[in-house]
Amino acid sequence: MTYFNIHDINQLEHLFKINLINSCAGYKSANLIATKSTDDKTNLAIFSSVIHLGSSPPLLGFILRPTSVPRDTYENIKDTGYYTINHIHEKIIKDAHHTSAKYDRSISEFDVTSLNTDYKDNFYAPFVKNSPIQLAMKYLEEYIIRANNTKLIIGEIQGLYIEENLLEVDGFINLSKGAVATINGLDGYAIPNLKERLEYQKPLI
Length: 205
Hints:
alpha+beta, three-stranded antiparallel sheet
């Protein structure tokens, strides 16, 4: 096996290092977070850090990079309190990836891609049209991760929209049926296939 100790990692060429460290944790979620400013400017950005934090109440978190530079997603969330999380599926991978480009705040990523807004039930922030799973989120709190000055943003699910064919009778969402993407590192995309669901495990003795 190839081995890197911490000294080796710190000495690596920049691009090699960020590729290595971004991919070593394994496959990550692939989501588009959509927001709208107080003056009705929409914003869309790809995130690979959405995580489940709890079911009662239903909480999700995501990691925001340091806000030492403008972060339109963050500013819109703090100003309005609302955002949406939208799963990326196979047919929109390239457009979703392009939302990582750094556009001026006056330019909406919806306008430079083929992705379209979708407003539901008077929720303030837009959803991504045809995303198989769409979550309406309300900002609750945030925590600074002092080791690298990133932020953990915590929100509560206010509404959940799921394509009917993905939802199993026990509440399980079968992502494979929706060709939902996952991210490997910074720029690698895969469409996983569900192999097996296993029963709740109890001690053997």
